[in-house]
Amino acid sequence: MRSHTLLFSLILLFGQGLAFSWDVVLHENRRYVPVENVSKFYNLSPPAKNADGFVISSATKTIKGKNGAREVFINNVKYVLCFPIINKGGTTLISAMDVTKIIEPVMRPGLIKNADSVSTVILDAGHGGHDSGAKGNRGIEKEAALDVVLRARRLLLQKGYKVQLTRSNDTFIPLEKRPAIANRYRNAVFVSVHFNKSNTIGGTGIETFALAPRGVPSMDEENLRYNDIKLYPGHAHDPENVALATAMHSSMLRHMRLTDRGIKRARFAVIRHLNIPGVLLEGGFMDHPIDGRLIASSAYRDAFANAIVEGVTRYSNAIAGNTNYQAPSAITSAVDPTPIPNLPKSLAPYDLNRGLNEAVQRAAKQLATPSATANPPISNAN
Ligand SMILES: [Zn+2]
User: Fold this and answer.
1) 94 C-alpha to ligand 1 centroid (Å)
2) Which residues surround ligand 1, an ion (CB under 5 A)?
3) Residue 300 C-alpha to ligand 1 middle, in angstroms?
4) The domain that contains 270 carries what CATH number?
5) In this structure, are 303 and 171 located in the same domain?
6) What is the mean pLDDT of each run of 10 residues along the chain (382 residues)?
7) Confidence (pTM)
8) In the listed set 280, 295, 319, which residue is the last one of a domain according to the structure?
9) Residue 298, phi then psi, degrees to nearest 5
């Protein structure tokens, strides 16, 4: 009964009048669909399977995944999945949640229902005042974030966008006030600018956060918590959030050229209370020797600002159905008819380091050698 209901929902969601039959498989009370269904639905090649994963592609689109991994690469951009990819009886399965919440909005952004065009960009420089954010040898997060935001504002105004800042100087703005400012605007998107710090030595690269859908654990969590099943205002824009994250993140990768840490999910206060689409960008690690040096430079800050402007433009094109630019588009119905599944007791732990590329591993190795002590990562108590 349950799977019939879901099948019906998926047909409603995707069907647009076409009957497509998804072979729904229940696993630990979650709904999964075979990767073969996904390739057929999106007119991609049948899965080319290798030992531990699959690739499905067309001339312009690619989806790549690995059994057991909680990540997928769509058009070469990394997405942290809601739930790991599994293999059951030789069939590779992707959760229905990930198909509706990530793959659909990324593959067909032009089909997002009621996505508003963008005339205003709300730029949110993270931290401020007594809240310095992450610290590195060459600067502090609150200062770098504000500088990037001011550079982006200049460029956006030149392009004809209206721009609203949550802070334009070194003042402390409480977290809940930031979305409140943004929510005064329509035909707007919210972009929060941050820099990272390492919990373990050697963290590097850029990442983008979109609001975790309802019923999905946050990125670093193994278990669902009470907050994970709460409905927040930001959930009304789940598809736009992923589309915006895709547009922003791919632009950041292009301009900033740092390691791709992926598009991730969280329930940060600044994004969960938004009534408009929004993302939180992490533009590198303040406490990493290479990232830190870049972040302190004017060139890198300009690159970040340009990435934001390009991201807004890409998003606008994507939701308008114009995906003639290279790289991912991003979007689905704003209302997810998928009911909250019975909550699983736990999920496989996600290893943050698993997705790091060779450059990062090299950097991490360098840090471990004595010559690196001339430029040590500072331990950050903040
Ligand atoms: Zn921050």
Assistant:
1) 32
2) 126, 133, 194
3) 18
4) 3.40.630.40
5) yes
6) 46 52 85 92 87 86 91 88 90 91 88 92 97 93 97 98 97 96 98 91 88 79 71 93 93 82 92 97 92 88 93 92 45 24 23 30 43 34 32
7) 0.80
8) 319
9) -65, -40
